Amino acid sequence: MKIRKAVFPVAGFGTRMLPATKSIPKEMITLVDKPLIQYAVEEAVEAGIEEIIFITGRFKRAIEDHFDKSIELEMALKESNKDKEYEILTKISEMCDFITVRQKEQKGLGHAIYCARDVLGKDPFVVILPDDIIYYRESVTGQLIKKFEEVESPVLAITEVPLNETNKYGIVDVKEKIDSRTFSLKGMVEKPKNNPPSNFAIIGRYVLTYDVLKSIEDCGTTHGEIQLTDAIRRVTESSGSYGYLYDGVRFDCGNKLGYLDATLHFAMNREDLKNDFCKIIKKYC
Ligand code: UTP
Question: Is the peptide bond before 9 cis (omega within 30 degrees of 0)?
């Protein structure tokens, strides 16, 4: 079955990026010249996603506006013959269909995904956390969808992290190595304080099934939040799931250093900026 829908949970406060996020959604902070969320939307569209469901909260209107048409601005660009800018702008709203669902209370990632249930129906779907920005040759969402089509069970993007950082992530428990990138899973733990089952961390890209959505209903809350990891673990224990070591470089743009790292990486990989930017950086080293 073709995967057409992706859920983007964007209702969080983004406290690690304050004060920038006081009045600007974290997802609208720019990396070089595009908001973070546009990178993630482009990755989804490259993977064949046709419908994106933003799970938003109060103060997130800027995200909807960014992916809407901007008639006045488009007309102004056209009239002043700014053809390149006009083309860039019109493409944004035409990339795919955008739907917004409000998460009225911030009750965790699991709850945010559950808010999309009426739009998702029973089809498998993608989840993208847009503060995880990935530099890739082939869309990482696309890589996961390919794997899902082969295994027909939930597939989670995983990456190796140092053992002393496993307490910051959901960590998978591996059943079997299938090939150099694919692992069947027997469980997972959210931010283990000690004895992590592996050093493979789950990052913000998932292909999930209706079973996971149903399972969220049965999950209790931990510190007032419904954890997505709990729902996936239940499905893993009953019918299995897979971890996939994606091909790409990931940046956690939800924290300041990760964001700065990404800014350097993306700018240095832009042909139009690379040489001049390099000269600027040299001033500081
Ligand atoms: P984070 O843990 O990064 O939280 O959420 P946050 O609020 O965005 O940032 P900090 O930790 O305060 O700096 C992971 C993802 O889940 C979404 C967030 O928007 C982010 O994309 N989320 C989290 C929701 O949509 N709803 C929630 O209730 C919780």
Answer: no
* Mean pLDDT for the stretch of residues 75-97: 92
Q: Where do the domains of the chain lie?
A: 5-282
- Paired tokens of 69: 């048409």
- Chain centroid to CA 73: how far? 29
Q: Which residue's alpha carbon is nearest to atom 2 within ligand 1?
A: 12
Nearest protein Cα to ligand 1, atom 27? 108
Cβ 28 under 6 angstroms from ligand 1: no
**Which of 99, 114, 151 minimizes the C-alpha distance to 228?**
114
Query: What's the whole-model pTM score?
Result: 0.95
Chain segment 113-139, per-residue pLDDT in tens: 999 999 999 999 999 999 999 999 999
In short, whether 13's Cβ falls inside 6 Å of ligand 1 is yes
**Gap between the Cα atoms of 90 and 34, Å rounded:** 14
The finding on whether 108 has its CB within 6 A of some atom of ligand 1 is yes
Please determine, looking at this structure, whether the domain spanning 5-282 carries the CATH number 3.90.550.10: yes
| Candidate of 129, 203, 219, 252 to mutate for ligand 1, largest count of ligand atoms within 8 Å of Cβ | 129
Convert the pLDDT of each residue in 142-196 to its tens digit.
Answer: 999 999 999 999 999 999 999 999 999 999 999 999 999 999 999 999 999 999 9
